[in-house]
Write a structure and sequence with these properties.
Strand order of the largest sheet: 1-4-3-2-7-5-6
Radius of gyration: 14 Å
Number of helices: 2
Oligomer: single chain
Strand content: over 45%
Distance between the termini: 20 Å
Length: 104
């Protein structure tokens, strides 16, 4: 039986997706339009295997769609959205990457 190489994990909220993103070596959240709604996701590859994990959040709305960055305050745990990076020592910037098409 062939080994499954792509695993999809659905998260419950945007906060959960952000908390996963800040733990990644490459911090980015991808956004793709699917019909009338948007989906946000993060890729993670288990090294040295060829397994890929995709953390997903369906039906994304609001500021995530309009913004370019998520600003996560590592002291307070709060997050906000912005078009430009903010200069502060306590924040982590997570770029929002818009994907036009994804073929897996």
């Amino acid at each position: 039986m062939p080994e499954k190489n792509i695993y999809r994990i659905k998260v419950d909220s945007l906060r959960d997706l952000i908390l996963i993103a800040i733990q990644m070596p490459l911090k980015a959240i991808h956004l793709i339009r699917e019909g009338d709604s948007y989906k946000a996701f993060i890729f993670f590859q288990l090294v040295p295997s060829r397994r890929i994990i995709i953390f997903e959040l369906d039906n994304v709305e609001g500021k995530l769609i309009e913004s370019r960055f998520i600003v996560y305050n590592s002291i307070s745990g709060e997050y906000s959205f912005t078009q430009k990076p903010v200069t502060s020592p306590n924040v982590v910037h997570i770029p929002i990457i818009r994907i036009k098409e994804m073929i897996i």
